[in-house]
Amino acid sequence: MPTARDIMTPDVTCVGEKESLAEAARRMADLGVGSLPICGEDNRLKGMLTDRDIVVKALAKNRNPGDCTAGEFGQGKPVTIGADDDAAEILRTMSEHKVRRLPVIDGHQLVGIVAVADVARALPDRPVGDLIDAISE
User: Fold this and answer.
1) How far is CA 28 from CA 11, 22, 62, 67, 69, in A?
2) Long-range contact list for 121-126, CB < 8 A, 24+ apart?
3) Which residues share a beta bridge with 3?
4) Count of domains in the chain?
5) The sheet that has 15-16: what strands, in order across it?
6) What 8-state DSSP symbol labels residue 44?
7) pTM for the structure as a whole
8) Domain span at 14
9) CA separation for the pair 134, 137 (Å, rounded)
10) Which of 20, 78, 94, 136 is the most exposed place for a label (fewest CB within 10 A)?
11) Residue 101 · residue 113 · CB < 8 Å
12) How far apart are CA 17 and CA 67, in angstroms?
């Protein structure tokens, strides 16, 4: 069974925890992605920031994205997957936490992102269909 390392997108771009939401939004647009890992000055993962976070938690509340930092939106301990965890574990973790993307960690180092689409390409249809049902509830 493939591991996270086998199916992840490597070379992930982070947004710094002290960078503004406006900068994070520009980076998302430039990269064509809907989420970015939030990394601290120590290069450790602090959380995940999504385009939805920017809209719902900042813009909809009349907060200026130039004045808010990405770190303000990294809530709690981020849900991650180990680089050597297999696709079944990825599916279990995504389903349990109702997420579509997981940062991939090797030791304490962020090495990639695995998305539900990556798992879908690597596994038969039914387990992925079950995951989509679980996170869409």
Assistant:
1) 15, 10, 21, 18, 15
2) 121/7, 122/2, 122/6, 122/7, 122/87, 123/2, 123/87, 123/91
3) 86
4) 1
5) 15-16, 35-39, 45-50
6) -
7) 0.82
8) 4-136
9) 6
10) 136
11) yes
12) 13
Asked if residue 135 lies in contact with residue 99, where contact means CB atoms within 8 angstroms, the answer is yes
- Measured in residues, the chain has a length of 137
pLDDT 10s digit of each residue in the chain, 137 long? 889 999 999 988 999 999 999 999 999 999 999 999 999 888 789 999 999 999 999 999 999 999 999 999 876 678 999 999 998 899 899 989 988 899 999 988 899 999 988 888 787 665 665 666 565 55
Q: Running DSSP on this structure, what letter comes out for residue 69?
A: B
How far apart are alpha carbons 121 and 137 in whole angstroms? 22
Edge-first strand listing for the sheet containing 101-106: 9-10, 109-115, 101-106, 81-82
CATH number at residue 31: 3.10.580.10
As a whole number of angstroms, the distance between CA 80 and CA 23 comes to 24
